[in-house]
Amino acid sequence: MTTRLADIAAQAGVSEATVSRVLNGKPGVAATTRQSVLAALDVLGYERPVRLRQRSEGLVGLITPELENPIFPALAQVIGQALTRQGYTPVLATQTPGGSTEDELTEMLVDRGVAGIIYVSGLHADTTADMQRYERLRAQGVPFVLVDGFSSQVQAPFISPDDRAAMSLAVTHLVSLGHTRIGLALGPKRFVPVQRKIEGFVRTVQDQLGLSAETVEKELVQHSLYTLEGGQAAASALIGRDCTAVVCASDMMALGAIRAARQLGLDVPKDVSVVGFDDSPLIAFTDPPLTTVRKPVPAMGQAAVRTLLEEIGGTPAPHSEFVFMPELVVRGSTASAPGERGRP
Predict the structure, then answer these.
(1) 224 class by beta-carbon count within 10 Å (0-12 exposed, 13-18 middle, 19+ buried)
(2) What is the CATH number of the domain that holds 35?
(3) What is the rounded distance in angstroms from the CA atom of residue 304 to the CA atom of residue 119?
(4) Burial class of residue 61, CB neighbours in 10 A (0-12, 13-18, 19+)
(5) Res 307 pLDDT > 60
(6) SS3 321
(7) DSSP for 197-229?
(8) Does the residue 344 lie in any domain?
(9) Residue 126 carries which DSSP code?
(10) Do 268 and 189 share a structural domain?
(11) Is 3 exposed, middle or buried (0-12, 13-18, 19+ CB in 10 A)?
(12) HTH lacI-type domain spans which residues?
């Protein structure tokens, strides 16, 4: 027991006497200190005493797309941790091709009496989807928050990154490196984040390179799938149109763009620069390390939980969109345009 107390005390940064008071449920310990000791127990793999186990305030559903794209597990982790800190138990429900649909997962969660639901990149982001499903859910009295996507037809809080600003950051960076032929690889046009990225990309290219909107959309925008293979196909088409830089709507697509360049005998970033979007876990360790636009995942995840808990508590936030600014992270996949090298 003494060894265990010492381990926990060292991990939590407190005395063994304080650990003992927490484990025995004694008063006189600050809430933050108590939480540090409990966190140390969890990190070290010790089981919490029965008296210290939190009683769940209820279940909260989290519906995400497939988890192959690492940004979705990252967001799920932030949301799950934030819910747990507030005493709720997260229930992760994942959509997979050929598996359960969003509507089926929603019905399952409602049947289990969840206190609320957070949707990530769901049908609310698809402009062709029927938004009445969300109004029916509201009529059932189930609070919900929608992440990544927006529809004026749905009365609910939305949490989004600023997709237009993300494209402005990427294009401005590439123009500063001397690139004048910049392509955009992204998903199907029916999705709201895709439409917003196109708007930001077209506007910035117009402003900084003087191209017409028609030329940009016709020659420099390539739709594909949000996968490595989709990025590879889109980038191949854009490089074939003499693009020396490609901005991708996800890091997975960007990895596909790098593969496309290499298969064409080109070097990244010497011959082609590539910019991703998300800053997914481990993306800094690719070859080359990927320049990307970082989605503010921690802030978005925490805001989604805070907003949902306000809905659950009966003091709902405004039914509008909360937009979070992205950040450009420059690494090794972007460099000066080929024709710019060696100039004084």
Answers:
(1) buried
(2) 1.10.260.40
(3) 9
(4) buried
(5) yes
(6) strand
(7) HHHHHHHHHHHHH---HHHHHHHSEEE--SSHH
(8) no
(9) B
(10) yes
(11) exposed
(12) 1-54
